[in-house]
Amino acid sequence: MSDFSFAMLPGIETEEMLWLQELTKGYSSENKQRFLAVYQSRRKDPQTILICSLIGFLGPAGIQRFLLNQIAMGIIYLITLGFCFIGTIIDAVNYRKMTWEFNKKEALASAALLGI
């Protein structure tokens, strides 16, 4: 398996791809495939997080927080209308950073789950 497989992930940026390559550089081809399968099922696409943030202006705020497993913050956003839309604006601006932090944790969790 080549490192090109990471480039096939939707919405992946260069920083994330380089980080994944570094994380998996000692893995065998089979282990990389297993890691990619687990990681791909857990990973969130940055565009999805952006769209969910923007939905907070028209409907329920905080959907993006629920997707990023920040349940308490999602409930607070629902109750406060996204902190009167200020939090929703901030999330819409910082969606890439929020998604990258989530995906980084999920990559480490996926590697730990596989024990490699």
Write up this protein:
With 116 residues, this protein is mainly α. It has a domain at 46-115. The protein has eight helices and no strands.
Class by SSE composition: mainly alpha
Helix fraction bin:
over 70%
List the uncertain runs: none
Summed up, the helix count is: 8
Q: State the distance separating the first and last CA atoms.
A: 16 Å
The biggest sheet amounts to: none
**Order of helical and strand elements:** HHHHHHHH
Query: What's the gyration radius in Å?
Result: 16 Å
What percentage of the residues does DSSP assign to strands (E)?
under 5%
Topology:
Elements: H1 4-7, H2 14-23, H3 29-42, H4 46-55, H5 63-67, H6 71-84, H7 86-93, H8 95-114
Q: What descriptors fit this protein?
A:
0% strand, TM2 domain-containing protein, mainly alpha, 73% helix, 116 residues
In short:
This is TM2 domain-containing protein. It is a multi-pass membrane protein. The protein is mainly α.
